[in-house]
Design goal:
The chain has 460 residues and is α+β, with helices and mostly antiparallel strands. It folds into 4 domains: 89 residues, Uridine Diphospho-n-acetylenolpyruvylglucosamine Reductase, domain 2, CATH 3.30.43; 116 residues, Uridine Diphospho-n-acetylenolpyruvylglucosamine Reductase, domain 3; 109 residues, Alpha-Beta Plaits, CATH 3.30.70.2190; 108 residues, Alpha-Beta Plaits, CATH 3.30.70.2740. 35% of the residues lie in helices and 20% in strands. A 7-stranded antiparallel β-sheet has the order 13-10-12-11-15-16-14, with helices on both faces. Strands 5-6-9-7-8 form a 5-stranded antiparallel β-sheet. A 4-stranded mixed β-sheet has the order 1-2-4-3, sandwiched between helices. Strand 15 and strand 16 form a beta hairpin. Helix 1 packs antiparallel against helix 3 and helix 13 packs antiparallel against helix 14.
Length: 460
């Protein structure tokens, strides 16, 4: 180990696992954006809280930047290490530490994958309800860092609704025990909530105390084909009024073509411009009858062109694959992604403005979009033509993103719904936050991380 800084770290923490092999540096130094060549100093894989604290204190003494790392499934460059930073990966800290049956909480280490958290909750007869397609690879710490939402926000809210407490190593090296699982706690600022969504710029989340919920009642899954964009919000309003929705996800015909080519099975005949996967409580005959009546009303009003309802768990999984398989099916095309949100009430006007903008500015590219219509979150994927150089493709996409950011500002929206700002969206933060807010955010960061060692260059 030739770097004297790493030698000092190894001497301070002799049991710490450090990686410096070029293949490891490349693997841990990037996230799903793939836009920045990874160039970390090394990768540290701590096994406990003391080692995390030791790393942060060492980083302050030697002025080494640290990039906290979970599953690195983000799409904003928030976990990229491209300038000689130390990657602090929590992947070894991946265990459930304890369950409290009275409080219905599960204490977990930050590197635990979301799917493993869900399985641990089910083992106690409860559920951790935050969910999305990357459940098998994303970590709970990364979910907390970006306040991840996913496919069931309409029923359960974002990650922040389910965090009862956090153990964090702040940027100054102090260990903070935040909220300690209290249901009511009006003793000043809620620093737990401040940490959630902070993208690793204030502290390193080491452990989380998660709230668990009762399993939802039996549900049914329905696939709907819609004749036009305006029908999306009309059907959503109809179903929300009649049913207890758990999810309401939409995608376009272009998205369907890609996921079918990737191995999913077609569920409806014919071609339609828009589709919805809806999941709703169906515990009894009355709830099932309400769903059929809502569907029939949508058909009679001309809002629904066709539909199918799952008759088994296997059929429900097949319908969900049409939505959840989209991101994987698009990956070979190296898409440029936008992850945006507006108020639910602003969705219709924004959809029309967005569609006009994309049609005008992207005539040469295929654009695939889908999202969580029930919470105002849209994912826009611009597919890269094989013959176009990466730099030229990104430059053209960033030009359109600036226009999209302006459109979002007009509709009171956000350039980042659930993947954070990271490196990708820094130029557009001012469209979502005022100058006064950004100044206060910088001040908060200075307090928690006075030497600026945690994830520098991200967010601001």
């Amino acid at each position: 180990m030739t770097d004297p800084r790493l030698a000092a770290l190894a001497a301070r923490l002799p049991d710490l696992r450090l990686l410096t092999d070029p293949a490891d540096l490349e693997h841990y130094g990037r996230d799903w954006t793939r836009r920045w060549p990874p160039a970390p100093l090394a990768v540290a894989l701590p096994g406990n809280l003391d080692e995390v604290q030791g790393i942060v204190r060492w980083a302050n003494e030697h002025r080494v930047a640290v990039v906290p790392s979970g599953g690195r499934t983000g799409l904003s460059g928030g976990a990229v290490a491209a300038h000689g930073e130390l990657v602090l990966s929590l992947e070894r800290m991946n265990r459930a530490l304890g369950f409290d049956p009275v409080d219905r909480t599960l204490r977990v280490q930050a590197g635990m994958p979301l799917q493993a958290v869900q399985e641990a909750a089910r083992a106690h007869g409860l559920v951790y309800p935050v969910d999305f397609a990357a459940r098998g690879s994303c970590s709970i710490g990364g979910n907390i860092a970006t306040n991840a939402g996913g496919i069931r926000v309409i029923r359960y809210g974002n990650t922040r609704e389910w965090i009862a407490g956090l153990t964090v190593v702040a940027g100054n090296g102090e260990v903070l025990e935040l909220n300690r699982g209290l249901v009511k706690n009006s003793s000043g600022y809620d620093l737990r909530q401040l940490m959630i969504g902070s993208e690793g710029t204030l502290g390193v989340v080491v452990e989380a105390l998660l709230k668990l919920a009762e399993p939802p009642p039996p549900s049914q899954v329905m696939l709907l084909a819609l004749p036009d964009m305006d029908a999306l919000m009309r059907v959503f309003a109809l179903f929300r009024a009649r049913l207890a929705l758990q999810a309401f996800e939409f995608f376009t015909d272009a998205a369907l073509r890609h996921v079918l080519a990737h191995g999913a099975q077609r569920a409806l005949e014919g071609e339609h411009p828009y589709y919805v996967v809806a999941e709703f409580d169906a515990a009894g005959e009355a709830a099932q009858q309400a769903a059929l009546e809502a569907f029939e009303e949508g058909v009679n009003r001309g809002w629904i062109a066709d539909g199918a309802i799952a008759q088994s768990e296997a059929q429900a999984a097949a319908l969900w694959r049409l939505r959840e398989g989209i991101t994987e099916s698009l990956a070979p095309h190296r898409p440029y992604k936008n992850d945006v949100s507006v108020r639910i009430g602003a969705v219709p006007a924004f959809l029309h403005a967005m569609q006009a903008l994309l049609a005008r500015e992207y005539p040469q590219f295929e654009v695939v979009w889908f999202g969580h219509i029930g919470d105002g979150n849209l994912h826009i994927n611009v597919l890269k033509p094989e013959a176009l150089a990466d730099a030229d493709f990104i430059a053209q996409c960033e030009h359109v993103t600036r226009l999209l950011a302006a459109t979002l500002r007009e509709h009171g929206g956000s350039i980042s719904a659930e993947h954070g700002i990271g490196l990708v969206k820094k130029p557009y933060l001012e469209g979502t936050r005022s100058a006064a807010e950004i100044a206060l955010m910088r001040g908060v960061r200075q307090v928690f991380d006075p030497n600026g060692i945690l994830n520098p260059g991200k967010l601001f």
